[in-house]
Task: inverse folding
């Protein structure tokens, strides 16, 4: 999201502060729910609100905040808000059910890796499409059943639903009448009736639910790389190139 905002000149006019994810410590609070010293995380809809989070100090509406996972350091918890809410809300549209078969594309990425884990909790069988052969082991470790880096290897007509995080057309793999939800910027496939896009929205309560899963050991947050903010150019080059097994985190 961040590199697309920068490269495509989306959202508020420049100059602006990028960033949707936040993990940090409360310095000052004007509400009783949070006190100085509390560890918190949040997601800010930066494109629509203009409130970017890549800063040493961020003034955040209290309604966006939730307590950070107790079992994660903040530099790892920072990878949860945007990717976690994107995966959760899109899966609410996909509605995988016990006994169904779901395909997640881009399953080793920040959103895809969380989607595989969350979808398995529904009782559905979750398969994974990744972009590189080296990511096959990552997706299997997260609990995906069939994992491949080739669309041609997917079974024909096998999937009740597809969650597309990587702009990949499932071809003949989606069963007739199957559900397709995308979070990509590409146009929806014209040959899939009912294909839908899902736009992430701010949701502190939903984020708190994800935190509870993390603290219960039922949801793993993958970070592919950490960079100091002074190395932000390199960080952009890395996640713009793709193929990172998880999120790229900036440290202030």
Result:
């Amino acid at each position: 999201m961040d590199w697309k905002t920068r490269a495509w000149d989306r959202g508020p006019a420049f100059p602006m502060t990028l960033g949707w994810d936040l993990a940090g410590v409360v310095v000052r609070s004007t509400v009783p729910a949070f006190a100085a010293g509390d560890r918190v995380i949040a997601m800010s809809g930066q494109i629509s609100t203009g409130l970017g989070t890549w800063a040493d100090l961020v003034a955040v509406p209290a309604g966006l905040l939730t307590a950070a996972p107790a079992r994660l350091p903040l530099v790892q918890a920072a990878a949860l808000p945007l990717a976690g809410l994107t995966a959760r809300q899109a899966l609410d549209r996909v509605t995988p059910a016990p006994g169904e078969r779901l395909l997640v594309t881009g399953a080793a990425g920040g959103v895809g890796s969380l989607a595989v884990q969350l979808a398995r909790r529904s009782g559905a069988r979750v398969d994974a499409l990744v972009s590189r052969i080296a990511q096959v082991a990552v997706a299997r470790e997260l609990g995906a059943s069939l994992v491949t880096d080739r669309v041609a290897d997917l079974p024909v007509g096998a999937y009740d639903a597809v969650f597309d995080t990587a702009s990949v057309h499932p071809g003949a793999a989606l069963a007739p009448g199957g559900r397709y939800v995308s979070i990509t910027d590409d146009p929806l496939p014209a040959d899939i009736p009912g294909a839908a896009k899902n736009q992430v929205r701010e949701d502190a309560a939903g984020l708190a639910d994800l935190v509870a899963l993390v603290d219960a050991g039922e949801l793993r947050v993958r970070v592919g790389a950490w960079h100091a903010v002074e190395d932000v150019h390199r960080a952009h080059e890395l996640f713009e190139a793709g193929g990172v097994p998880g999120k790229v985190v900036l440290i202030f």
Observations:
- The first strand starts at residue 21 and ends at 25.
- Residues 87-197 form a domain with the Rossmann fold fold (CATH 3.40.50.720).
- The mean pLDDT is 94.
